[in-house]
Structure formats: structure tokens, C-alpha cells
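USER: Please consider what follows.
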Amino acid sequence: MSSPIRVLIVDDSAMIREFLRNILEAEPDIQVVAAAGDPYQARDKFLKERPDVITLDIEMPRMDGLTFLHKLMAAYPTPVVMFSSLTQQGAEATIKALEMGAVDFVAKPTSNLREQLADLSREIVDKVRAAARVKVRRTKLSHETLRVPEKIEVDRVVRLTKSPPRPGGPMVVVIGASTGGTVALEQVLCRLPADSPPIAVVQHMPEHFTLAFANRLNDRAGITIWEGQDGLPLGPGQCAIAPGGQHMFLERGASGYLVRIKDGPPVNRHKPSVDVLFRSSVGSAGPNAVAVIMTGMGDDGARGMKDLHDAGALTIGQSEETCTVYGMPKMAAQLGAVDRVVPLDRIAPLLVGLWRESSGRAIR
């Protein structure tokens, strides 16, 4: 048998520490080696136990979780799952933590804490298991606008795929991501020039967090990025991020694409769901869609991508070596839904090349 996943819990709430210990130790493959009430205690226990995964609260006395995370990643890069309050302030801090190297997060409810935490048990266990498989590495983000690739490079990439969307046709890009997706999406979206195709994104996140994520990206990108709102048009140079807690659909109107936001039950345990966005794109875009499935655990988006693939859309999977968790792209590939596997740093240039081809413009 393989060794159990060794976890260090860091939270200033004794109730939370007890809750996390109980649910994690109920799993045969997980062992809680220590718990700490603040980062100073956590430092000592980390050096003694050298855990495989840390669960880390953001708001703590003596030293906040972000400061501790920064110090940890500089000295001992370790998989970390953040435990964040379900507020706008907590969301902004969590997005920053993910940029700093945290693998994932769990949103801590703001009321009926003990009752609602029980509902989070499976999510916490799944994310700790996924984090244990991640090799943490320092990531440097470049927020510069993408320099359009050389003609020979883009031509070569395009010819290895299906034919580009029909000349003059309304190309649209739909993207799905989960664990590791916030950093990966930034590396794609913030490299796109203003002259880019319409883009609709589902990133698995709860309410409040998607707004903070969209605003942060918009401040850094050359395209316009906003949290999706029902009925808003989606045109070139624009990107809609599905709002947490609701599903996002793509529709084709008289003057172009628009997004629809609707409530409904979770799909594949997620709301928003990648499958919902992808399947809505079959009728609204069909062969003019380019679908991208990126890092994340589980299989959300795999079947929707297969539907798009069968409808003639070009489908792209992020390569295993550049994924934080090679789950969603792997499942899509196993279904035969992926036309081309692309490393993270080549996704933006490929989208630019396809957009220029579909628009009938020369690739410079």
C-alpha cells in the first residue's frame, strides 16, 4: 500500500481544526500529522512533520495566511488548499493566494457554520487528494500583451488541426477549467491582443469569487473581461466569465453572440458547469466554435466537448505536462473529443492564428 497523504491543518478556529481533522482522518488514505492555530505554530510543526499538503486559513492572528503562504513558497514549495471566507474580501485574497502558488481553495460558509461544513466534506477530501498529486513549482506570470506569432509558426499550428472556422463565419472560443485554472487562464487571456475572438469561460468557482477573478484579469488583459450577465452581447475582444453559483449558456442572436445566465441544479456536481456551456455552443456556434479544456480534476466538460467535436468544432486539450491537475483534459481525450493537445504557452498563439484565418486576414 502507498503511504497516506500527510496533512497539516492551519486555522485559528478550534472548531474548524476539529472538523477538518475528523473528516480527513475518516479517510484511509489521509493522515492529519498536526494542527496549528496560527502561522508561527504552523512553521514549527511544518519543519518537524514535513507534510504533503497544508490546509490554510487566510484570516489569522499574528500573521495572515497570505504572508505565511509567501514565506512557505519561497522556502519550501508545498501543495496548499486555502480555506477562505465566502465574502468579496475573502474572494480577492483567495485569488491572490492562487497566484502565489496555492493549488486550490474551499469557501468557508459565513453562517450555520457547523451544518454547512458537513456539506463541504467531500469537496475538502477531493481537493486534498488532488493537491497531494501536484508538484508545486514557482510560476512567473507575464502580463504583457501577446506579440503575434511569426507567420510560419501560426501556419504550422493551424494546418495540424481541423480546418479553421468558415471564412467570414462568427468564430467563438469556449473554455472550461477547474483546479489550477485561475493561473492557467491568466496566462492565456492576458496574452491575447485586443483583436481577438469572443470568448466564454467557465472556471469552477463559487459566488463572489468569479467577480473578483474577472476584475483582476480585466485590469491586466488587453481584451475586456467581465463576469457574465444575462443577455449581454459577446463580441470580438471580449471575454465573459461564468458567474459562480449559476450556469452560463451561449446563444446566437441577430447581431452576434450573447450569454445567458440561468439557475438550475449542479451538473457534474458543478454550478457553473463546463458541460452546460459547451453543449449550448453546439447549436449556437457548431463548427465555428473552438473549445478549449484546461487543467482541473474530474470530468466536467468532457462530454460537452465530445458533442462539439462531433458537430465539427475544433477542440483543444491542455497538455498533461502543463496542467496542475490532468483530469478534465484527460477525460475528454479518452472520449476521443480532443483534436489537438497543446501546451499552455501555445494556446493563446493558436487562438490568434485561428481568429485571423477565420476573419480572412493575413497572419503577420
